[in-house]
Amino acid sequence: MRPSRREFVKWVTASGIALSLSRLAAAQDAGFPARAVLPGRQGWNPAANGAGRIDGVAKVTGAKLYASDFRASDLPGWPATTSHAILVRAPDATHVYAGIDLARLSGALKPSVVVTAEDLAKIGTRVPEFYAGDLFCPVGKTPLYMGQPVALLIFDEFGAFDQARLALRDGTFVKSGEETGAVVAPNYGAYRFTRVAGATPESPDIYSPVQAGWVTPARIQDTALPVWAPFAKETQPPYGAAATHGEQIRAELDAKNPAMLVLDRTFETQSVDPMFLEPESGLGWYNTKDRKLELVVGVQSPYEATESIAFLLGKARAPFKPSRINTQFTYVGGGFGGRDHTPFPLYVALAAMFFPGRPIRLAHDRYQQFQAGIKRHAIKMRSRIGVDRATGKIQAFAADHVLDGGGLANFSSNVAVCAAMATIGIYDIPKVDVTTVALHTRGVTAGSMRGYGSLQTMTAIEVLIDEVATALPLNPIEFRRRNALKQNGRTMLGNRYSDSVRTPEILDKLEMHPIWRQRAEEKARQQHNGTLVGTGVACVTKGYGTGGDCSLGRVELSADGKISIHCDHVEMGNGIGTALANRVAIHLGGVADEVSVARVDAYDALGLVTSGNPYTMDQKTQDAAEKNPRWVPAISSATSASIGAHVGTHSAAEAARVIFRYGLWPAALELWRIPSTDPRTKDWAKARWKDGQLTMAGLAPLGLPALAAAAHKGNFVTGAIAHSFSRWAWSRARFQIGAEQHRAEIDALAVRKGGGKFDRLDRVSVLFPPAHNNQSGNVYTSMCGTLVRVEIERATGALRIAKAYSVFECGQALVPEVVLGQAQGGFAMGVGYALLETLPPFEGGPGNGQWNLGQYLVARGSDLPLRDLEIEMLSPLTPDEPPKGFAEVVMIPVVPAILNAIFDATGRRFRSLPVTQTMLKGAIA
């Protein structure tokens, strides 16, 4: 399996531009095989011993994997020399943009090409709807936000580019005119989520979003904040009903009821940067001979990126409209959501189109990444909770959230929704009313980031829960146990989780752990040595998936038993390649010899088509569309929302299941000489792989090479391509394979027999998840609990995390080492968020282009309990429990556990982040 440099399969055509997408193979001289490494050649089997990463050796030995690694000379067929581009951004968003001072770049520093808003207007580019707003701020307008691009400078030679980059760093290159104040723009989204439970847990809800749908207020104040309550009686359903119930809940919390403990608190979280190790980078080359635009980028959403570029240039005037766009996707050097639907590839494409014939590189340095990169939303929260003093049961909860969405909409509306839905955490609360609004501001754009709003609101609820437990008083874990949502209980939207709810088990683990059991003893032991000791606990749940997730998978088995896998999901440190290899090995008995990720070009045999919006379409539309056997609600989705293991590997696993059932199993029957009349022909579910051999009681073990050879010789199924879609449940379909109908959680299938070509099988029937599921909250969830012991120097306020313990469940762990790494990394991110990281929102913040790691503090080894962090992963409930998404949930409880530990040590509750050493010193002075 030598590295392939073939032309990539045409995927779709948009605006007359042929599009192709592929996974970029590493450079020939890097010694790294195309489409990931081949672990089977090394006699190494992670499925058998649970060790290793298929991409591990390549990464630690410096193979060219990431977009920032590549130059034009690395790519066969490209010109040898690379030119360079700089995006110039406005450091101010309160004055009219008056142009750029090109005189600063005279002589050798003069750019070869300068691209501005005027140039885009001349050639007829279009901005994709998701990125609505000016790609470059026009002269004479006030920038929409700090850091908005104003020009693209292109340099033929690296030396000129490098000197110019340093000369422009101070931000005074951009000229400003009269002061106008910030641009006022509509908010990005506003919602109200209200639920009133029935009289008993079994009774239907009196009101819930699942029943009535999601609602948003129709009236807006002059300040752009919604009018939530005063006009509820005048508002037509459905908002009026939600507002009426919501105001009744708030009135109960406001009532002076001595039997109920009511706390009214605010909490504020900060803006932070994802701080992935590789700043955004890309290569572009517009080959004028064949009008082909070649791109190399690293993103979390390959399909969306290429479609957006095609839309950008689809109506451009000649010669700025390519006839074909070929986008190659690399590994991603960290994402955390920050590379999901990023506008960066649009600028790479523009750089190439405005400098035709020459490969050009656009790459952020860390200053530029801080100024331009997507940020986590800062959120201001007010929460009110009412608890029955006698029983310790939560009766009602109300909250109001205001999110700073920054300059472009991005995913702010979605983050606001997810933050609201997560606001009561693990708890079963019968009356809930939550309002949320995401605002446009002049700050750097906020969007998708690990935790996706849940981190902020669950930190607030877990700190509040701890305060309630202290006030009652009740043991904090016992209070959580009394109020935790049970299996089959309803969330605040009125839906039930469809997978396991293991909160009681996690709470038991936390309660029995020595960090918790010895908390009083440790506090007493150090009370006289100038050190304050505190122990904190938190327990959270985090959904995974978006309610519109897709998976594409292709698996092939050669005649000599070699396995190859293709998948559309992206490697960004999540170990998706190894997860794929291990999940397929469950069905085929061996680790793949070739694993290819970020591939959206290997499934043309399915002939998929799509239409509509999977998140908003109604049932009638879906029913009509699905009559086309090639139609699916969506074709490919971003690698985000912790869906790598659960979604990313699903279709490949189902494809492998088809190969086993209709290829290896009939081959095994032939080798075992079992006739078709024997009842054992139907016992495929009883067969087991052991040490690379297929075993059945009373029969000789069969190795994979022998089975593969027999499958090819018998013209049985040796390859399968599958597509699946999840809207809080998997699509399901039946396909005729030979004399049988195969039922599976997929909606499209193509198979290859022997050494032949792939043939699409039209589905006999299909059941897509109902459109009504769009009103549901997240039904997939994982739980995690964390204990933290802190030691704070009384004299200086310096905090040390002495010990920590996290326990979580993730279903079937496909790669236990990756699971452990995600938990460790999540802990480090939680520490940074709680104690160190912060970005001012406007002036003085990252939008001014002056921020780097000198000001922005991230957690280092000295900030972490490197030798005293214990991670426990619960075993799956059943051997075949599907993998769950967990990469976000392992970060979230770390933050409130630290805050609760600080309270236990100091007696002071902090209600804004981060809690710095200076703040601690002031609190204990």
Mean pLDDT, nearest integer?
Answer: 92
Which overall shape is indicated by the principal axes computed on the Cα atoms? globular
DSSP summary, beta strand count: 32
In angstroms, what separates the terminal alpha carbons?
67 Å
Rg, alpha carbons? 28 Å
Uncertain spans: 1-12, 25-51
Largest sheet, spatial ordering of strands:
1-2-12-11-10-13-3-6-5
Fold topology:
Layout: E1 10-14, E2 17-23, H1 46-49, H2 56-60, E3 83-89, E4 95-100, E5 113-115, H3 117-123, E6 149-155, H4 158-167, E7 174-179, E8 189-196, H5 209-212, H6 239-254, E9 260-268, E10 281-287, E11 292-297, H7 302-313, E12 324-329, H8 344-353, E13 360-363, H9 366-372, E14 378-388, E15 394-404, H10 412-421, E16 431-439, H11 454-471, H12 476-483, H13 503-512, H14 514-517, H15 519-525, E17 531-543, E18 549-557, E19 563-567, H16 576-588, E20 594-596, H17 619-625, H18 644-648, H19 650-671, E21 688-690, E22 693-695, E23 702-703, H20 704-713, E24 717-726, E25 732-737, E26 740-744, E27 748-753, E28 758-761, E29 763-767, E30 781-793, E31 799-809, H21 816-835, E32 869-874, H22 894-906, H23 917-924
Describe this structure in words.
By secondary structure, the protein is α+β, with helices and mostly antiparallel strands. The protein is built from 23 helices and 32 strands. The chain has a 9-stranded mixed beta sheet with strand order 1-2-12-11-10-13-3-6-5. The chain has a 6-stranded mixed beta sheet with strand order 20-19-18-24-27-28. The protein has a 5-stranded mixed beta sheet with strand order 8-16-15-14-9, sandwiched between helices. The longest helix is centred in the C-terminal third of the chain and has 22 residues, at 650-671. It starts with 9 loop residues before the first strand and ends with a helix. Residues 1-12 and 25-51 have low confidence and may be disordered.
